[in-house]
Design goal:
heterotetramer, A: 137 residues, Sufe protein. Chain: A, 6 helices, B: 405 residues, 2 domains, 14 helices, binds pyridoxal-5'-phosphate
Chain lengths: 137, 405, 405, 137
């Protein structure tokens, strides 16, 4: 269960922040900043994931049967979230991606990014990963 | 009935402690609106005291909390009526707005001149006037199914007036004047076989019978929170997703759009397409507690209790001289419209009020039904889960005393 | 400002005691919805606990009491906006429903193909989409008055786009995004000279400026209770009696009729003709206390306090590096939409929330205005009577800290 | 001020009931029963005063410059109210009728019949008297 262990790693990483929202958001933004530079040319319509207030671009490369993602966002916090998803999903096969259930988000104190709120794009981001995986199966 | 905790239930409803004209309140006007348990009242205060915020587009914590609680009501009602998905649950002010939403939106694309709409003689004005308005606007024909002397839908008449031009049938599930429970499953089945859109007015049914919209298989089901122990100002339109998808919005404004350009606007996804503007957030949140209340008692237990109370009331009421109940279907809930010989309902209403008993008098927003029975009004006793046999006794004694004056 | 009892005012609003993410709540999202004083919250509970009943047609004591309290709100609002008569005050769910009521009802008889409607670039979606909908349905032309770079209505442009075909002008009194106070009296005068119906969207103005509809002399004025310290789910359409008289009803149903016959229906008197179905009784009653609250403090005192706070905020906000305020009319209220260089509003909103500060972010339901300024959104601070200079300081410090991260 | 004294008489008459609503309504009904029998032929459209839930008929005769009213209602309580109005207005000149301000109703504990409630016809009844007076002036 490799995907479980990445999420557990993430939860461990956030643990030191002790649920402090401000520090958590700051840490998220730092993670986002560490993402590989995204190719400006890939910022086109078909790669967009639309949230209500932020934009996300997501592309991938396939190597052997594994998918490798890269992405960007116009907002720092969403970019941080995206970086976590990339960490979880990149380097996995399509089947592995589809089998991966996300559970880390509540455990790092970011419940607010899931559920009924439509003003964030976490769910749409997650879906985009899965759609890419599906279409490459 | 032993297991139904009527004493503790009565304590849950603070208004039941009231004195009216120096008497204990006996509230028999439940078909007009029901009373609210403390949990509903408190949840509204709690919203305003702790997390009031506009919803959906805010990123701050109050907006997030308010949005989540608001949407939890949607999930709750979805389960309560067994809809397939939250996208099928649209919040309105009440049944009246719900029916207007449907008639007006369908009117914009579904109906053309000469099409026919069927309602019944026992409909509430809220299920008559919207159809009269759209019929007038679009030159449609509006037909009314006859109601029998007992107060039942005349099914043969219904089958006779259906034609190839019939586009829609809108019927009350339970009559607010007669108490009659209509065979809506049978009627909807006929509609579905004939490709006719079906609308069910569930204003009276939602608190007093089990609602399963997938089982009924109707296209629309409409209800009001205030008639099911919830606050005023909230209602629900259930609509099958496929229909809601194709329908144009009723109102335009904030929240129901995806993108607004000067050149044109694209509408939001369901159900938001039908929820323009700031909704009644506080009361939608309160509505959830009303459903919780019903679910905690158990709908089946409630119905069992209410059925027994209805039977008791029916027997006792009939012991009053000159008492005539309008609506004697064998399938009815505890709603009794009645006349008493030589006793005008208006006098009766006022005299009972002097004893703390609240009944409704008049045409109950069903004038065509009154006309049918050659009445200009009745008095009406309508029961709810907190009413008791003792209250029925007090009512019957009071009426008898008035008659012996 | 000395005399403005800000400390005791803050105690009147229970939510202001809240801790958000371990910080004191700083609520700067008042243009979305205002918080409610305890008196408003209590009056709603009190209604449900003591005299909840459906209104208007009941003869029993609860119905009588509820009806009287409900109608007292109408009288209160009539005086508050200086309407001539209670018949000119129609209750709705909010501003959005109000504008839809007007557009839809006028649409049924006033407009014909080719007629023109004028709105402005700074309108809220709720004052755009209803007109787009009716324009599409009836083949009308919809024009938008330009907004200047400062965020003001371009009066010359307005005069230029008026034509002999202009039937209606609908304008916001105070912009929810820019804070601009529009010269509505001047604009309405032009409308009246040219026989053009005028609609004023008062959603933002009603709590923050003096409203005198006879002085403005507009045909319609629309507002929402929840933006003036009242509950969600209530709004008002003021309309001149003559127009309301001739307008067809918006919704059909109970309460808005005089007589329902199968053959046709006659409508009730004003304002009931426009109030179909059970209204939001509890919240209409609560709304009265909100107006009482404003009146007890004194509108003039409130405005004086808010103006001073606005000036203070404006000065302090401008001390933030890279801070740009969108909307710099010399006549504006304490609403500040802004961008900060290299800082996305969404990040800002979330980071401020972590410090307990609630601001709104996004397009504020004014996408055409955002397009005009080439923005996809802003963050917005909007002030109300319970906000303080200390809160402004905390906000400014917090933003500066975030920028120095 | 003769009209004042009739209303004061009425208030005095009701005083013994001590504001008890039930007794007040009963007394009202008794008063209604004492009204002179109304001519069935006069129950025509033009003599109707419409309340929401009850019907009232009102006619009058003029003698010298005074008006004498007779009336009926299909409900006993409204008939009682009507009898009070007849007692107050009958035998007065048009001018006196128009000058008479009603104040007794609150003082006999029947406030519920005035004000915003539309389900009663007191106001419409009162208006009918005044309209008759106006049209005879
Ligand atoms: C200027 C303006 N108009 C209309 C509205 C819509 O008001 P409501 O959402 O209460 O219907 C708002 C509030 O969002 C507003 O600020
Ligand atoms: C059967 C029925 N339909 C419709 C309505 C209208 O409901 P509301 O007034 O809540 O809109 C009622 C309630 O009066 C009713 O009893």
């Amino acid at each position: 269960m490799k995907e479980m262990s990445i999420q557990k790693e993430i939860i461990d990483d956030f643990k030191v922040l002790d649920g402090d929202l401000e520090m958590t958001l700051n840490y998220l933004m730092e993670l986002g900043e560490k993402l590989d530079v995204f190719n400006e040319k890939d910022k086109k319509e078909e790669n967009i994931v639309k949230g209500c207030q932020s934009k996300v671009w997501l592309t991938y490369k396939k190597s052997e049967d594994k998918l490798f993602f890269s992405g960007d966002s116009n907002t720092a916090i969403t970019k941080g979230l995206l970086s976590l998803l990339i960490r979880i999903f990149s380097g996995k096969s399509c089947k592995e991606i589809l089998d991966t259930k996300l559970f880390f988000i509540g455990d790092i104190g970011l419940n607010r990014f899931i559920g009924t709120q439509r003003s964030n794009g976490l769910e749409s981001m997650e879906n985009k990963f899965r759609i890419i995986a599906l279409s490459n199966k | 009935m032993n297991s139904f905790p009527i004493n503790s239930i009565r304590k849950d409803f603070p208004i039941l402690k009231s004195k009216i004209n120096n008497h204990d309140l006996v509230y028999f006007d439940n078909a007009a609106t029901t009373q609210k348990p403390q949990s509903v009242i408190d949840s509204i205060s709690n919203y305003y005291e702790k997390y009031n915020s506009n919803i959906h587009r805010g990123v701050h914590s109050l907006a997030e909390k308010a949005t989540n609680e608001f949407e939890k009501t949607r999930t709750k009602i979805k389960k309560f009526i067994n809809a397939k998905s939250n996208t099928e649950i649209v919040f309105t002010r009440g049944t009246t707005e719900g029916i207007n939403l449907i008639s007006s939106s369908l009117g914009k694309y579904k109906f053309s001149e000469g099409d026919e709409i069927i309602i019944s003689e026992m409909e509430h004005h809220s299920n008559i006037v919207p159809w009269q308005m759209i019929a007038k606007e679009k030159n449609l024909k509006l037909n009314m199914i006859n109601v029998t002397d007992e107060g039942k839908i005349d099914l043969n008449d219904f089958k006779n007036i259906i034609s190839s031009k019939t586009k829609l049938v809108s019927l009350v599930h339970i009559s607010n004047t007669l108490g009659t429970v209509n065979p809506i499953k049978e009627i909807v089945e006929i509609c579905n076989t004939n490709n006719i859109i079906s609308v069910i007015d569930g204003a009276q049914a939602s608190a007093h019978s089990v609602i399963d919209v997938q089982n009924i298989n109707c296209d629309f089901y409409v209800l009001s929170a205030h008639k099911m122990y919830g606050p005023t100002g909230v209602g629900v339109v259930y609509g099958k997703e496929k229909l809601l998808e194709e329908m144009p919005p009723y109102m335009g404004g904030g929240e129901m759009i995806k993108e607004v350009k000067f050149s044109g606007t694209s509408y939001n996804d369901l159900p938001y397409k039908f929820e323009a503007g700031t909704p009644n957030i506080g009361d939608v949140i309160g509505f959830k507690e009303a459903i919780n209340y019903i679910e905690n008692l158990g709908k089946d237990q409630i119905i069992q209790y209410e059925d027994k109370l209805r039977d008791y009331a029916q027997k006792e009421l009939n012991s009053i001289d000159g008492f005539r109940i309008i609506g004697n279907s064998e399938n009815k809930i505890g709603i009794f419209s009645f006349t008493i010989e030589n006793f005008h309902y208006y006098d009766l209403g006022l005299l009972l009020d002097a004893k703390g008993i609240a009944v409704r008098t008049g045409h109950h927003c069903t004038q065509p039904l009154m006309d049918k029975y050659n009445l200009d009004g009745t008095a009406r006793v309508s029961l709810a889960l907190y009413n008791t046999e003792e209250e029925v006794d007090f009512f019957v004694d009071s009426v008898k005393n008035l008659l012996n004056r």
